[in-house]
Amino acid sequence: MSDLGNQKRVSASILKCGVNRVWLDPERMADIEAAISRDDLRGLIDEGAIRARPKKGNSRGRARVQMKKRAYGHRRGPGRRKGASGARDPRKRAWIRKIRALRRTLREMRDEQSIDRSLYRIMYRKAAGGQFRNIAHLRAQIDLQAGRAR
């Protein structure tokens, strides 16, 4: 068997792939050996004597399983953590989440007229001042305020 390195290299450039992906048909070695021009090699590629092997890829299956588990809190234990809790979930992000939820709730309550505009404004300012821990706390305070107003 002679050296077919040149044929492989030229075929790789025609097939637009790497040299290692070029497959030469062992049955047609004599024809491949005789092919010296790019045109000859193109003919052999059309006949199927020379082919590009399929690309090898890394399976994402295991990664998908991991991501699915992380979505509901698994694989997030202390051994997995690198940053401080403040780096993983900054206080500012937590505040933004909380204030948006509070303001959304206040807006809904105002729009459905369960609170009037003046109480909405008072509670809005208190929320901005950080007076409420969460929506349940806000609702409890509104009930107290409404009870006082009666």
UniProtKB/TrEMBL annotation:
Residue ranges constituting the Large ribosomal subunit protein eL19 domain according to the UniProt record: 3-146
Region (Disordered) location: 51-91
GO molecular function: rRNA binding; structural constituent of ribosome
UniProt keyword RNA-binding present: yes
Any one GO biological process: translation
Classification via PROSITE patterns: RIBOSOMAL_L19E
Residues of the signal peptide: none
GO (cellular component) term, any one: cytosolic large ribosomal subunit
Keywords, alphabetical: Ribonucleoprotein, Ribosomal protein, RNA-binding, rRNA-binding
Gene3D superfamilies assigned: 1.10.1200.60, 1.10.1650.10, Single Heli x bin
Pfam family, one: Ribosomal_L19e_C
Start-end of Basic residues biased regions: 52-83
Protein family (similarity comment): Belongs to the eukaryotic ribosomal protein eL19 family.
Protein name: 50S ribosomal protein L19e
Organism: hydrocarbon metagenome
The organism's taxonomic lineage, starting at the top: unclassified sequences, metagenomes, ecological metagenomes
